[in-house]
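[job 0412] stage=fold_complex status=start
inputs:
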Amino acid sequence: MTINESNARLTYWAGVALGPAAWAANLQGVYAITHLACEKAKWGGIALSTLLVLGALAGAVISARAIRRRAGIEWNDTAGGGPRAFLAWLGVGTGVLFALVIADQLLAAVVISPCLR
Amino acid sequence: MAAEQREIRDDALDGSQLAARLESIWRTPSGLIGTLMSVDHKIIGRRYIVTAFAFLFLGGMLAILMRIQLAGAEQRLLSPDLYNQVFTMHGSTMMFLFAVPVMEAFAVYLVPLMVGTRNIAFPRLNAFSYWMFLFGGCFLWISFAFNVGPDVGWFAYTPLSSLQFTPSKRADVWAQMITFTEVAALAVAVEIIVTVFKQRAPGMTLDRIPLFVWAMLVTAFLIMFAMPSIMIASTSLILDRLVSTRFYDPSSGGNVLLWQHLFWFFGHPEVYIIFIPATGMASMILATFARRPVIGYPVIVLSLIATGFLSFGLWVHHMFVTGLPQLGAGLFTASSMLIAVPSGLQIFCWIATLWDGRPVYRTPLLFVLGFIVIFVIGGLSGVMVASVPIDTQVHDTYFVVAHFHYVLIGGAVFPLIGAVYYWFPKICGRMLSERLGHWNFWLAFCGFNIAFFPMHILGLMGMPRRVYTYTPEMGWDRLNLLSSVGAAIFALSFAVLLANAIYSLRKGTLAHDNPWGASTLEWATASPPPPQNFDRIPAVTHRDPLWADSNTLPVIAGLSAERREVLLTSLAEAEPQIREASPEPSIWPLLTAIATTIFFIGSIFTPWAVMWGTPPMAITLIGWFWPTGSKEDEE
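[job 0412] stage=fold_complex status=done
writing structure:
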């Protein structure tokens, strides 16, 4: 196994891991500081969500880089048999989807006053 | 090594010799004891399916009782106390004894066949799981028969379910039934995950796994992470009631909202534990009857995984009226609305598959089409109640009852009935009647919508859930009558299904191996399959193996023809790794389940059950794992 192959094995599923992890961290993190947000940490949730959107997108980008040369295989061949390209595509999709969810939660944090009960 | 060389392998025998030999090795012993010892996933799967449907019919009868009671104002069929028990039993039975188990039941039967292996992983655990499920269900219903049926709703909110407000054993029965069914569900989840990860046929890479198997894999992970939450909740509730702990007592530092958090952290994924397998069934049926592979296989898998993750981030939308900070509620509104995206992606893939295919409108496909229509309506009302202002208005009204029945019956029961029609020939060896099937579908589709659509309007008119009657001045009687008529039609559709199954078991057309011309491996073996599933393990070279190699499905050789053995393969590439012994039939799973049942039931009456209840369990477990010197223990 070459170094490149080894790196690809480590990273092709990055989006599958990073997207949901970033979303879970955002949900738990922002929800945990909600009670404090009114007085002390007004911008904390917004900053955390912004960071985690980028984290989820980073997962998608890493997955995309891992398969950039063979990206079309999964879509052109219905026989299957390329689990790495398949997982990498899942990584790209998962990273983007969860970035979207976090961004939606970020919007909620921007629009809704943390002091509203 | 010498013994290894003397061992007869499957490549040394011709077809009929091998089939006869494997059948004698894998068959379940005859007689009553043999039946109780079975570890064959097909036998246990069939038992699971039949038992779950028995509970469906029991729960359905309770629904009919409620609809008769509510058909007019001030009816007196059920007393308020009995009505409380009836709606609690209905919800608990449908959720814990039918919906989750029946999906797992189909997985227990089908997943090993679909991935091309000879038995499920941990077959004795599988047998134990079934017995626990059966005993838990019987415990609940026998309690109900003795007027100790739970009456605190299927989510048993504290403080209503606390000792102060429910001094009888009714809440304990509910809480311990949860423990039974969750132990069973967790066991099956472990089996499915290991079977899918390690027992796939060689060549079945991650991107060649059938979509139903993907769906069950995601579901199994959901069960693994969601169920412990409700087990902790129900156990702590029993402790509060039995030994005066104070988990849910605010006067001693406890918190009643803790119950809601724990319950709904399980309860919302529970909806997807029911729904996701149904989407897998829909994908399989659609591909077969559209006569083409499902469009967007990676997108559907992505949707399944994303839905699985997101399902853990929605639970607070059940708690919007508990006084949580609005920012917190807003976060969960966002997740709740965004989960419509992966579900929508799947629906677009299915529509595209139908659009591009050559659909054959047989009964299974009709039920899937009905599912899409009904589920989309349920999804739309779901997006509505994900919004805090709307949810605040309609919370605990019949609008919510309509919504979740559209999602659960539309999203799970319709594809499930489609799956019954689809896989009945494989399981029973005979076709179900198409004519009765069409009657079944149209009665179900019309009956369901007549029964549940008016509930949206009743909810908007302010009719609350769980009222045993109402006064004529409320103006709810006509819509309730309409709803009850619809429920009767819907119930009739299940009577047709039952009649069809009984008739077809005796006189249905004999099914050959692949009567629908489907593409996946379960159709590569006989209908019903022999005890060993496959004489030779298939080698998979295509996502739709039977469409790619309909006449010459490649196989691999080298497994033992002397003992029960399965092939373990690698996780991503499904490359062969080692041969693994598969357990023989055993009575110990049943005995362990009996000991566990005594312990569980005893522990709602006395904490000393922990002392006298565990030794029998320990003894049975020692018996279960005691080395017997048989070949299965050698490696």
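[job 0412] summary: Chain A has a mean pLDDT of 82.
[job 0412] exit 0
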